[in-house]
Amino acid sequence: MTRKYLITGGAGFIGSNYARRLIQRNEQVTIFDNLSRAGAPRNIDWLKSQFGDDAFRLIVGDVRSADQIAEAAKDADVIVHLAGQVAVTTSVTNPREDFEANALGTFNTLEAARLSGRDPVFLYASTNKVYGGMEDVKVVEEATRWRYAELEHGCPESQPIDFHSPYGCSKGAGDQYVRDYARIYGLRTVVFRQSCIYGPRQFGIEDQGWLAWMIIAAVTGRKITIYGDGKQVRDVLHVEDLLNAYDAAIEKIDAAKGQIYNMGGGARNVMSIWAEFGPILERLLGKKIEVARADWRPGDQKVFYADTRKAKQELGWEPKIGLEQGIEMLFNWVKENRELF
Predict the structure, then answer these.
(1) Phi and psi torsions of 264, nearest 5°
(2) Is the pTM of this model over 0.85?
(3) Which residues are catalytic?
(4) CA distance 330 to 21
(5) What are the distances in angstroms from CA 303 to CA 90, 132, 232?
(6) pLDDT tens digits, residue range 178-210?
């Protein structure tokens, strides 16, 4: 059965990759995006070059407008809500814009889903930032990384939420609204608390998409700054694995509705952001990389990696693309598409 998909923020990194997958499956795809991000027009042009102008519908609109998103959502069977403001630093300098894009934008999109009367499946891209600094969780320093002292499998969904930064607050508000619309209105919503997602079509910047940014900087000869000691640990998840989770949640929506899933590479796909990633990048580049050093940034967690066992148990999902394989794939894509940067 062909479904009608609405992807808010569909011209972004994750959205354009999902649109490609859905178009290849002959689904009906509507991309709703305000095209404000630098890479967005390029991603739309790429989709058109791959599939033709008529393969999907593009609505240039903004989730901050309740009327615009309600009109776009009225026929959707599945709404994938990716639109929003994505950087912690931007939220600190402009908290109102961050609130309106993330908290109000998510509320408007949920209301559009509810008022459509079609009971669409609703997927929300939340963030691990809803867990805050996790100051109550003990970490241990090792030679090349920090690690959790006791959370062997990573941070579980049961970890208390504790919003830090306007970005954490705005995304966290959306996270809880999405969950509660399942309880109060019976909407078929699913929250994905996403960790470091990476892959092709990602035009990373220093404040968002760090892994892609460092690869882009290395390939194009830009300066890389390491904040803190470089031993901060993150789990990384290739975008194709993330999209497999989206598909699994839609197919198993009776089990997934109302649920929250941590979505990252998990304990098997963990590395420190420079002490361990740096040597991998230098090997791919074939030379030493000189980096600048700076103080820790406020709220920078020494360790975050997601416990993804709930998604495995309930959705039958786990990452398929290993850390080094995925990094090499992205490195090669950046090299082959250097003119985009």
Answers:
(1) -150, -170
(2) yes
(3) 167
(4) 18
(5) 22, 11, 6
(6) 999 999 999 999 999 999 999 999 998 888 899
